[in-house]
Amino acid sequence: MTAKKQSPFKLRGFRGVDEKHIEQLEKLKIKNTKQMLDAGRTKKQRAALAKESGVPGKIILELVCLSDLARLPGVKGIRARLYYDAGVNSIRKMASWEPEALRVMVTKYVEKTGFDGIPPLPKEVSSTIATARKLPIVVEE
């Protein structure tokens, strides 16, 4: 029996995205994280996508970063937003953290900002960072 391949996470599933921007990208057949990463890996691709879609470049970059984080198991809509908003906006940055330091930083971020979500547990942070260290870097900063 083979494992069922997970379908890519839909962009509209990320917390805090503007529906209008998602609709503009969907007109270009960009509906999920895989398509977003394929279309926006490089600065040049992101600039072209912003021009073609009418979505501001900073929003394109945000969606690419969220899509990059969503490659991590368990990091999807709310968790990807939490890490992104706390400043851990890429697989590269995630891989650079030590688990306890990241857990403490994100916990303080949630307490300070009132982010509507719970901080990750120690085991989750350790697993997320270990996975990030194994994944290839696919987004050009």
Flag low-confidence runs: none
The count of DSSP E runs of length 2 or more, i.e. the number of strands, is 0
Helix proportion: 55-70%
Shape: globular
What is the count of structural domains?
A: 1
Overall mean pLDDT stands at 95
Beta fraction of the residues? under 5%
Radius of gyration: 15 Å
Q: What is the helix/strand order?
A: HHHHHHHH
Please summarize the sheet with the most strands. Answer: none
Q: Helix- and strand-based class?
A: mainly alpha
Number of helices: 8
The span between the termini is: 39 Å
What does this structure look like?
- This protein is mainly alpha-helical.
- It has helices at about 20-25, 35-40, 45-55, 55-70, 75-85, 90-95, 100-115, 120-135.
- The chain has one domain.
- The protein contains eight helices and no strands.
- α4 crosses α5 (about 75-85) and α7 (about 100-115) crosses α8.
- The N and C termini lie far apart (about 40 Å).
Task: Give a short overview.
It is built from 8 helices and no strands. It has 141 residues and is mainly alpha-helical. The mean pLDDT is 95.
List the helices and strands and how they pair.
Layout (H helix, E strand, L loop, with lengths): L18 H8 L6 H8 L2 H11 L3 H13 L7 H9 L5 H6 L2 H15 L8 H13 L7
Helix pairs in contact: 2-4, 4-5, 7-8
Features:
mainly alpha, single chain, 141 residues
